Amino acid sequence: MLLRRGHFPVPRPFVAGLEEAPGSVVGVGPGFDEALYGREVTALTGGGAFAEVVIAPAARTLDAEGLDPCAAAALRRATPTAYDLIHTVTRVRPGDRFLVYAAAGGVGSVAAQFAAPPEPAGSSAWSARSAWSGTPNVPPTPPGSAATR
Predict the structure, then answer these.
(1) Can you spell out the DSSP letters for the chain?
(2) Is 10 contained in some domain?
């Protein structure tokens, strides 16, 4: 909304979509395998991800065959961030108890999945979110409780 109202000046023409661009490969550059045509991928772009066609370096493209576009887009940002938080920043170990706050969001919902047993084995994961999240992968909070596993 702020962009549409002119609060953030952008060069024109402008195509929205900051980073994650899921879709099918429709062309490859020189030196790349033409068998990639038609493969489902997700790419990290510098902008314009909502365009009909996006050009992205192969190094910033991941295979997303069989994933729906929303899950594919999450691979580029939420998944690595969540993995890093659980395994590098907090270093969750077997037997640890911890809370994943805002578990209905992109990073939170993936972090709750990484943190729950069996990875790391024996840990106890709790997640907190609002009463209704609209996120199908996060279980509803039981009545009378503020957290759910």
Answers:
(1) -TTTTTSS---SS-----SEEEEE-----TTS-GGGTT-EEEEE-SS-TTSSS----GGGEEE-TT--HHHHHHHHTHHHHHHHIIIIIS---TT-EEEEESTTSHHHHHHHHHHSTTTTTT-EEEEE--S----TTSPPPPTT-S-B-
(2) no
